[in-house]
Amino acid sequence: MADNSKQPPQYPDYFHLADEIYHHSVQRLRARVNFDPYPPHTHHIIERMIHAVADESLIHDIRISDDFPATARHILQQQCPIYCDSGMVRAGIINQNPHKIFIYHDDHTKQLAEQIGRTRSAAQVDHWLEMDKNYFHNAMIVIGNAPTVLFRLLELMAQNPDIRPSALVAVPVGFVGAAAAKQALMNITNPPPFATLLGNRGGTPIAAAIVNACFDGHGLTGGLTGGLTGGLTGGLSQ
Questions:
Q1: Residue 198 lies inside a defined structural domain of this protein
Q2: Strand pairing class (194-197; 167-170)
Q3: Considering the domain boundaries, does residue 5 fall inside one?
Q4: Residue 69 domain flag
Q5: From 24, 51, 99, 105, the catalytic residue
Q6: Strand order across the 82-84 sheet
Q7: Contacts of 10 (CB under 8 A, 6+ apart)
Q8: Which residues is 62 bridged to in the sheet?
Q9: How far apart are CA 46 and CA 43, in angstroms?
Q10: What CA–CA distance (Å, rounded) separates 180 from 165?
Q11: Residue of 7, 31, 77, 130 with fewest CB within 10 Å of its CB?
Q12: What's the CATH number where 89 sits?
């Protein structure tokens, strides 16, 4: 018979205070991670990427172009379009202003995939281009799921130099294609402003965390906990 007489666990004083949990978590992160090799204006984004998945080893594989933080923040401040490769990425982005956040997994995208001989995820890029007559100028592309989306974007950019997103979050995840797609981005002679994570790792929490960090940079979100994603608030405070 179960013993129901045990006392409930004793939680820290900050257990009921979200901002305090975040504060303790960030303190522990900063004690573990050496940000010195990276320019100071990228530290906030790097911190949020690591915090999103509670993995300080990410620090070795993060790559952020020097122009990405300021460019991304400007785009968000101007309420320019944000194109996401999945609904999970879109759901993780804090959006307190009427920004345009798009995904396309409709029948037309399926038809495009059949026409171009690519996956439906990849065909989203073609659909985005149909909707965006400015070739992604003054737009952000956020890839946190499918490597084929990044490959297709790079393929189209190579075919037409006018296609160039103003900011690119490139953190697809997986054992097939993710590392190669991100390395292909790194091999471009003149890439757009970007934030990426080399290797197989990536995913929705990191993609959303990058965008949310850029929102924070312009005071577009409220409170310390405003940009936490994926239910990972206490990742480093356990």
A1: yes
A2: parallel
A3: no
A4: yes
A5: 51
A6: 62-64, 194-197, 167-170, 140-143, 82-84, 101-102
A7: none
A8: 197
A9: 5
A10: 20
A11: 7
A12: 3.40.50.10230
- Mean pLDDT (the chain, rounded): 86
Counted residue by residue, the chain has a size of: 238
**Host domain of residue 70:** 63-206
Determine the residue type at 230: G
Task: Write the pLDDT tens digit of every residue in 180-235.
Answer: 999 999 999 999 999 999 999 999 999 999 999 998 764 334 333 333 333 333 33
51 is catalytic: yes
Task: Copy the structure tokens of residue 188.
Answer: 């471009």
End-to-end Cα distance, the chain: 31
Residue 197 lies in a domain: yes
- C-alpha to C-alpha distance for 94 and 219, rounded to whole angstroms: 12
Residue ranges of E strands in 82-203 = 82-84, 101-102, 140-143, 167-170, 194-197
Please tell me the total count of domains within the chain: 1
Residue with tokens 């490769």: 85
- Per-residue confidence band for 51, with pLDDT thresholds at 50, 70 and 90: very high
Q: Measuring CA to CA, which residue among 156, 189, 151 is closest to residue 170?
A: 151
Place of tokens 């029948």: 107
- The pair of three-digit structure tokens given for residue 218, joined into one six-digit string: 């312009």
Mode of pairing for the β-strands spanning 167-170 and 140-143: parallel
DSSP class of residue 167 equals E
| Contact present, 64 and 206 (Cβ < 8 Å) | no
